[in-house]
Write a structure and sequence with these properties.
Layout lengths: L1 E5 L6 H10 L3 E5 L10 H6 L7 E3 L5 E2 L2 H11 L12 H25 L11 H22 L13 H12 L1 H4 L2 H11 L2 H10 L3
Parallel strand pairs: 1-2
Antiparallel strand pairs: 1-3, 3-4
The structure holds glutathione (GSH).
Glutathione (GSH) binds next to helix 3 and helix 4.
């Protein structure tokens, strides 16, 4: 049994939706995000960064980092077909986009939503938010271009990278209006499993 520490509106969506599509048994452990439970000593023993998600594998191995969880799970459940086979050129493209999103888009989102953490100077907050917005616009434009053939990042075949993109575009509403991203979102949300998992993370 997997254990996933989760809260609405967080990156736990990515591993949870992969687990759900793979049909893997999972215990969902809610974290009181607004009560800052993730910053408490007990949680930080498991994830010193104090961040959600946190995944515990059936053998007790502890994982942090949503993209690492996705990479692990797509290989643990190859029959789910959520990533190209390891070592293939297609997998290189999958890895590229997943890591691109994790290190660029996700962190730009954190700069936007937790701007006060990125400077010791309170006066800097509005500039940090403006730069994060500029970066998100530029990075989503790169993704939009990559979706030109579409409807998914790797053409006709949907992967976990597309689901990661669904999550990130949920957090940045301006991205949802980009035509190729809107098309991808509609295709993914047509899947009842994806729709159900997302409905516990987002109310919009
Ligand atoms: N790089 C991490 C980032 C995780 C992260 O920042 N999660 C946010 C929610 S989306 C969080 O836990 N924020 C609470 C906090 O920092 O107090 C990942 O991909 O898992």
């Amino acid at each position: 049994m997997y254990k996933l520490y989760w809260a609405p509106d967080t990156g736990a969506f990515a591993p949870e939706v992969v687990l759900a599509l793979a049909g893997a048994p999972v215990e969902l452990l809610p974290v009181d995000y607004h009560g800052k439970e993730q910053q408490g000593a007990a949680y930080r023993k498991l994830n010193p960064m104090g961040q959600i998600p946190l995944l515990i594998l059936p053998d007790g191995t502890v994982m942090t980092e949503s993209a690492a969880m996705v990479l692990h799970l797509v290989d643990a459940f190859p029959e789910a077909g959520l990533a190209p086979p390891p070592g293939s050129p297609e997998r290189a493209v999958f890895d590229r986009w997943l890591v691109f999103m994790a290190v660029n888009l996700y962190t730009a989102d954190l700069r936007l939503y937790y701007a006060e953490r990125y400077s010791t100077d309170p006066a800097a907050v509005s500039g940090i938010k403006a730069a994060a917005t500029r970066d998100l616009d530029r990075q989503f434009a790169i993704i939009e271009e990559a979706l030109a053939a579409g409807p998914f990042l790797q053409g006709a075949k949907c992967s976990a990278a597309d689901l990661y993109l669904l999550m990130l575009s949920d957090w940045y509403p301006a991205a949802r209006d980009l035509p190729a991203i809107a098309r991808l979102r509609a295709a993914l949300l047509d899947d009842p499993v994806v729709f159900e998992v997302r409905s516990r993370y987002r109310k919009d």
